[in-house]
Amino acid sequence: MREVIQKYNVYKFQELPLESQEKTIEKHNDINTSFDWYEFTINFWVEKLNEIGFIDCEIEFSGFWLQGDGACFDLGKKGYIDINKLAKHLGYKNLKRIEIISNYITGCIFKNSYGYHYSHANTRYFEISNNLTAKGKTKRIENFLNELERDIESLRKNLSEEIYKDLEKEYDYLNSKEAIIETFDANEYEFTLAGNIHN
After folding, report:
1. Domain count of the fold of the chain
2. Is residue 136 over pLDDT 60?
3. What is the residue range of 44's domain?
4. pTM passes above 0.70
């Protein structure tokens, strides 16, 4: 047996010829998205949803250029709806009245028939159920609960779309030449002329 040691030149990204730079970027175009790149955005939105009144939600998404792609959120195992927070966020004036009614109502997010295949805003819906007594179920309260349900559902849809836009924006940035080169530099990678990372 004969051992052969091969020598070859390695370069910092900026030292590569332009043709090799392009090849290197193309070869490693998923360097920033080949792992759970979305965690920061998801965590940010879980916190924001908590502040609004969708507590401990679980966010799902698929992306980014196919029909059916999008984002949505569910209550998950420990999530719940804080009606008082939501009403305040939506700008309802009579919060004391809502606080009293909220003891008798429950909000929930449900999957519709598309929700088992897709993860966009239209695969879920929000609904209020109540256990008001017959005496408490006045027409005025029913109308109010219907309005509140519509407003929360509209908010849920808008938030789902915002979440998706933020995820898409982050994904596009992470796959940009600028972000890929930043990763090369931050990790002090060296490359062969063929664009392979030298270990």
Report:
1. 1
2. no
3. 21-186
4. yes
